[in-house]
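Researcher: Quick one. three chains, 1229 residues in total.
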Amino acid sequence: MTKDMNNTDIQIAICGSAGDGTIASGDIMKRAAALMGYNVIAFDLYPPEIRGFGKCISRIRISSEQTYSLKRESDIFISLNDNHAIPHVGEVRDYGAVVFEDSLIARVPEGRHISAHIKPAQVPYAFSIRQISEQATNSARSRNIVVLGFIAGLYDMPARVFHRVIAAKFATKPQIVIDDNTKAFDAGMRAGGAVFKLDDVAVGKPRDYSNGSDAVMMTGNEAIVRGFLEAGIGSYFGYPITPATSIMERLAVEIPRRGGQFLQTEDEIAAIAATIGAAYAGSRAATATSGPGLALMSEMLGLGVMAEVPLVVVVSQRGGPSTGLPTKTEQSDLNLAVYGGSGDARRIVLAPTNVEGCYRCAGMAFEIAETYQTPVILLIDLYLSNRYETVIPSEENTFAPKPRLRPEIAKGDIYKRFELTYNHISPRALPGEEGLMHTITGLEHNEQGRPNDAIHSVMSIKRHEKLNSATRFPGLTVCKRFGDEGPVDVGILGWGSTFGEILETMFEAQAEGIRCSAMKVVMLSPLPMDEIVAFFDDCREILVPELNYEGQFANLISGAVGRPVTRLSHVTGSPMVIAEILAEVRRLAGSATPKQKALGS
Amino acid sequence: MTAPLHHVIIGSGSAGYGAAMTLRGEDADCMITMVTIDALPFYNRYDLPGVFRGHHDWRKLLAVPPARYDELGIKLRRSSRVVDVDGERQTISLAHQEDVAYDRLLVCAGGRSYLAENLIDSVGLMHGFGSFEAAMRVYRALPKGGTAIIIGGDMIGIDLALTLLDTGYRVVLIANQQTFWPHVVEPVERKRLLKALENKGMTIFADERPVGVLDTRNKKFSRAVALESGTEITGDVVMSFCGLSSSVEFMLGAGVDIERGILVNPELRTTNETIWAAGDICQIWHDKEKIYKFYHGWKNVRVMGELAARNMSGSHEIFDVEVEDRLDIDDDGNLRSTFWTR
Amino acid sequence: MNRPLKPVYLEEKLEEIRSDGHQDYRSKSLPTWCPGCGYFSVAEGFTFALNRLGIDYKDVVVVSGIGCASRFPFFVSTYGFHTLHGRTLPVATGIKLANDALTVVAVGGDGDAFAIGGGHIPHAARRNINLTYIVFDNGIYGLTKGQTSPTSALGFRTSTTPYENGDEPLHPLMMLLSYRASWVGQAYAGRPHHLADMIATAMNHRGFSYLHVLSPCVTFDKTDRTYANLGMQVRDLPDDHDSGNLMGAMAEASHDDAPALGVFYKEDRPTLDEVMDATNKRSTAG
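Model:
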C-alpha cells in the first residue's frame, strides 16, 4: 500500500496547561475533522492532577485515508502554554507550523518563551491570541478557541463545521457560551486568514464517503460501551479507576435508561463479585478496571473459571506495578490477565488493537462468555481507552443475545450442572428454573457441583479443553496478518494498542524495500496457534514490540511456539514510537542469518 | 575560565547574517542569538522579484539550509519584535514580554520602505515588497498580464519593475525624487534612464504627484492612483518604492546617539561601548566630510555586518569603503548599478 | 485435640427426616459439621422458615463464603453459590439485583463476615439490599481447625493465640446497627425454635436483615462459648424493648456479658432495587 501524496494526512498537536482548555480545544478540532469526513485518530495526554496547571497535549491525526496510529511527527503545533510546550516543540517536522502567543500578560524569564526553542526549519506563527480572545469575548478564556479559528483560517477549513461542533459541545450551557466561543473562533479565523501561510502543510479533501454521515468518532472506552449496549448488557458493577472510569460513567447514564442494574461498589472485589452474582443469575454482566483492580479481582476471576460463570471484565492497563503511572499507558498486565490468580485458570482474553476492535470485541464478549461459560477479559490500555478514531458501526445490531443453551433433563433425573459432554460445555441452569436446583462452588466439584477432589484431573481437562474452539468463534477476528505474503525477512508480531504503530512501521519498511509482514494477535488466551506458527514459519526474524519491560507478549508467544523472538520494549508511559520499531526492523532485515537467541533472553 | 560572551544581533538581513557567520568564525565558543521580526531564516531580499519567475518555495531562497544554524550554534529567534534596548542593563526587551541579556549587541534591523505622508491614509490599499510573504501577496494579487503601479521607484522597485516587464506584466511608474534611490542621479541622466525604461515597455508619469489610492474592486482593475492633476491611473497592485528609512524607534531608550539612523564611529560602534550597528539602520562618521553618512545597497550592508562582527570580537577595523555611485540602463533594459547588480 | 468426626446418621433417623415434607429443603448431601455443632440448628431453622413462609425452593438462592458455616448451601436443596472467603454479600447483591424474584439468603461464619469480609457489610447494610444475612458466630475458625476469630473473647487460647488472645473482640450487633441495617436480630443455636422464628422473621423483612446466631464450636472451643456458658448468659430482650429505637437497640446490644435474643431494631425504608427502579425511571423521564 503506497500513500498518495495528494491526500490529506496531517497531525495537529495542541499543548497547554489544564486550565487553558487544551483538551476541549482538541476535542472540537477532532470532532470538526470527523464531521468534515476525515479519518481521525486522536490521543490526549492529561496531567495526573485534576486541577491546576499540569501539562495537557491533544494530538489529532486527520487523514483522507485509513491510518493506524498517530504520526511520528506533528505537522502543526499550537502552544497555549510555552512552559509545557517547549519540551515538545521538537516533535514538529521541518517546515511544519508552530503557533504561539505573542502578547503574554506577564514577563517570562529569558529563554522561557517558545520563540527561543523553535527550530530554524519550523515555521513560527506568532499572534496575539489573548488580545483577540479579549476583544471577541471580553475574556482571555477563549484562547483555546481562538487558536482553532486561526488554524481554520490559515488552512482554509469550513467555519460552519466548527460552529456546529461548538454549538453541540456547549449545548447544555447558556446560549452566551456558544455565542462567545463562536465569536472567538471567528476572530481567530480572521487572524489566521490574514496570515501568509509559510509552512508546507497541505490540507486536502477528505475521503470520499458514499455515506459519510455514518462514521462516528469515539474513544476505545466509548466503543466498548457501545458494544456492550448493543449486546444487551444487563448489569454493571464497578469501582472507579483510571483509565477505565469513563466506561463506568457512560454506563451509569445508559444502563438505567434500559432498566438494567448499575452499581458503584465498595471496591473492585465487590465489583467483580456482584458481576459474578448477576451473571450467575442470568444477566449479561460486566465490570471494568485497570491493573491494580485486576490484581484485586484475580481471586474472583478464578471462581468464575472454577464455577463456570460467564462474565466480562474490561481491563484498561496503565503504567505499573502498584499504583504506578495512573495517567500513562503501558501493556504490562498481560501476565496478570492471561495467568493471574491461583491454580490452572484458563480464561479467554481478547486484546483489540483499535477502537473499532474495542466495539466488536465488546459486542461479542458476552456471547463468547456465555458460549464457553467462563470469564472473558477485554484487555486494552490507556492509549486505546482514550484515543479517538472514526468508526463505522454495524448497520444492524449483530450483537444481540442468541438463544442460550438450556439443560434438558428427564423428570426425576438429577441435574448435572457440570455434566461431562463431547465439547466439555455443560448446559447451564439459572436460579429460579424448575427442577434444576444445584449449588456451584469454587471447590473442585463433580458433575453435580458437589465438592470432590478425586475428579480434579477430569474437570481440569474439561475447563481447559472447552475453550479450544474459541479461536474459531464465528465472526471474531482472533488474529490477522498484514503486509507481504509468503516468506519475509521480518515479521512484526503485536498486540493491543501498539499494533497501530506496528502497521505504520510496516508500511514504512515496505516502502524502503524490506520484505515485511505484521500480525496482530487479538485472542491472547487461548492462542490461535495454527496461524501464529504459520507466521513464524514464514518470517526469518520475528520482532515483538510492546509497552512493557519484560516482553510479556514475547514470552507468551515464544513459550507457546518454542522459538526465539526479538523483543522491543518501550516503557516511557507513552505510546510506542514508530522510529524505534523501524530501526529494529532495519537492523533485523540487514542481518543475513537468523539470530540464535535463548528463550527469555 | 570566563563564561562565553553572548552576542545578540537584532535583525536577520544581509548585515545580521553576515555578522553571525563572521562571529562564529572569530570565536567558536561565544553564544550567538539573532532576533528578528521575520518568520523565515535569512534569505536575500534582493532575490524577491524571483517570485515572478516561479520561485515560490522560500526554502530555495535561503542562504543556508535551516539546519546550518543549529550546526553553527546560532540561535535564531524569529517572529520576535524588539521593543526596547537597555544599554545600561545590557538587555533587550521583546514584545512578547521577555528580556534577553547580551554582552555585546549588534543592531542591524535595517530600514522600512519610506512612504510619502500624503499616501499614509492609503496604506491599506497598497502592497509592500519587503519580505517573501509580501512579495508572494503581490504575486497573487496580480492577474496574469496585470498592471502594477509603482510610486517612486527606488532601485528595489526598478529591479522588480524590470522583472515584471520581463515576465509579461504591465508596469506604470510614477516617478519622483526617490526614483533610482540610493543613486543620486543628475536631471539629464534621470531623463535618459526613464526613457530607457519607457523603451523597455514601462508607462511613465515623470512629473505627477500621487495624492491617494482608490479601491475600485468592482471595476476591471481593483486599484487606481489619483494624481494631483486629476488623472486616475488604474492597475491591479499599487506599491511604493521610495527608499528606506531606518527603524530606530526601539533604540530610543538605549542611550546611544541617534540622528536619522543610529550614529556609529568608523568602527561601527555606537556611543555605548557594548552596542554596534550596521547596515541600513546606521549612519557612519565620515572623517573627511565630517558628517554621518548612510551606506545603502546590499554589498555595503554585508561588508558592514562582517566588519562590525570582527570589531565586536576585538578588532578595530575601520569602515572606509568609498562607493562609486554609478547606474546605467542600456538599450535592452539591462540594469547596471554599483549598489544593486548581482 | 479432637478431630472433627464424620457425621453419622442412622438410616432410620434419615427415613424419619425424609418422611417429613419440610425436609425436601435438605439436599442429599449430609452436613459435614461435627456432631453437636450449633449449625445444625441453623439448618433446621432455615428449612422451618422456608416451610412457614411457603417459598418455592427453586426461587431461593443460598449464597455463602468459606468456612464451616459456608458449607451450608450444599446441605439444602435450593439453588446455592458457595463463593469465596468473605465475598458472600457482593455476590448475593449481584444475584438479587439481576433477578429480584429470587429469595436470596447469605450465610457465613464470623471470620468470613467480620475478618476478611468486613468491608462489604456496611455497604450491603446501608444500601438496604433486600436479602437476609445470617452469620453463624462461634468465635473461632473451625474449618482450618481452630484459630482465633474477630469475635474470639479476650484471653481465649487457640493455635494462633497460644499465649491468649489479646485483641478486643468486635461487636457485630453494634456494627450492624451503626451501618444502618434495616433489621437486626440475634438468636442462639441452643434455642432452635426461637432461632427458626427469627430466621422466618428476618426473611420476611423487606430490606437488609441481619441475623446474628450465637453458636458453640463443640470441637475447638471447650472453654469459652460452650452450650453451658452461653445457656447461662443469653437473655431475652425486655418485653418493652422498642425495636424502632436505634439508640435503645444500641444500648441493649452493648451488654457483652448478657447477650439478648430477639429483634433489636427494624426500620422500613426503600430497598436497593426500589431505589434502582426509581433511578431507572428518572433516567428516562424528560
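Residues 149 and 189 of chain A are 4 Å apart (CA to CA).
Researcher: Thanks, that's what I needed.
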